[in-house]
Design a protein that fits this description.
Elements: H1 15-31, E1 36-44, E2 47-53, H2 59-76, E3 79-82
Helix pairs in contact: 1-2
Length: 83
């Protein structure tokens, strides 16, 4: 897999934000393995922002990543903002 290593201890994420991030990261790895998370930062208590990188960005793949973020948001109530 082509995922970037993220050190969650220095990002100031809460435990629920960390759980949400890991859920999204695992689903992203299964469905879109060429996407990787470049950085993550907390915005609010119920919101995180992350940047996705890929070699080839297409509308279809970007749309699939948004769908995955919405699925995780529905399960965890933490909003994921994709950059």
């Amino acid at each position: 897999m082509n995922l970037a290593k993220i050190d969650l201890s220095f990002n100031g994420l809460t435990t629920t934000q960390t759980a949400t991030l890991m859920k999204f990261k695992n689903r992203l790895a299964r469905k879109l393995p060429n996407f990787r998370i470049a950085w993550v930062k907390p915005v609010k208590e119920n919101m995180i922002e992350l940047h996705l990188e890929t070699e080839k960005r297409t509308y279809r793949n970007s749309r699939q990543a948004v769908k995955l973020a919405i699925e995780v948001e529905d399960e965890t109530d933490i909003i994921i903002i994709l950059r």
